């Protein structure tokens, strides 16, 4: 099929041109996007062109988790840190489940725009911590990263365990996905009680009203809606974080909730958008509705 007939390819470009037409007149813009998993091509000039957008100097782009800049201390990280330091705009992100939490905790907590952050690259790559309310370009954002990994049905192996080699062989033979503790899986992928309490305190201070919510996973009801979309009941498990978000769905007033995690670009309804490769201005509320012909989400 000729590329110009492939609506899945063409739609993002068409919609993105629409974004620029509709919101390009503002002085600064805040964009949102989904999981990167260490692939940062969407931030380059060519990547922006492919998405039909142009991120201007001093704009912001928020990644809804699984950014994975911090994954391992190696030459790739050094290269990426240097590359991000030269960007004219700022990348903000919330944690996903695929982040090296041990490395994240090596960066000090600081105050920025009303909430707690960690500057990974000073003023260029900034982690928005869990349970915070930020004011960015006159818009308020509640941020709460993290999620349960779904790709661990083969187990979480501990390299320090005497049974590691046997466990590894067993996991390999099973053909199921597995991860290694503190190398590709970290316990802090889900929040602790203090972070939930801090989130509730900050929201109470904001009168339980913000413009946007940025998270990695979604609430129980969002997951249920996604299961219906995929005709796959029970596909997603509930956990302490999806339960917390479920409570917020009833308590919190917000214009739009953006999340990642489900590896889809999908507008669930007028107030919920799941992002993956798409880049959209927050004001757009997300407009992508892409059909997954395989019928099942590629979770991560
Ligand atoms: Fe992911």
Write structural notes for this entry.
The protein has 300 residues and is an alpha/beta fold. It has a single domain (11-148, 209-284), classed as Purple Acid Phosphatase, chain A, domain 2, CATH 3.60.21. It has helices at residues 7-23, 45-51, 75-85, 101-104, 164-174, 193-205, 220-229, 240-251, and strands at residues 30-33, 60-63, 90-93, 110-112, 115-121, 125-128, 132-136, 139-144, 156-157, 179-180, 212-215, 256-259, 266-269, 272-274, 279-281. A 7-stranded mixed beta sheet has the order 4-5-6-3-2-1-15. A hairpin with a 2-residue loop joins β7 and β8 (139-144). The protein is globular. 37% of the residues are buried. Mean pLDDT is 87; it is low at 1-22 and 289-299. Bound molecules: fe (ii) ion (FE2). Fe (ii) ion is lined by residues 35, 37, 66, 96, 98, 261, 263, 300. Fe (ii) ion binds next to loops.
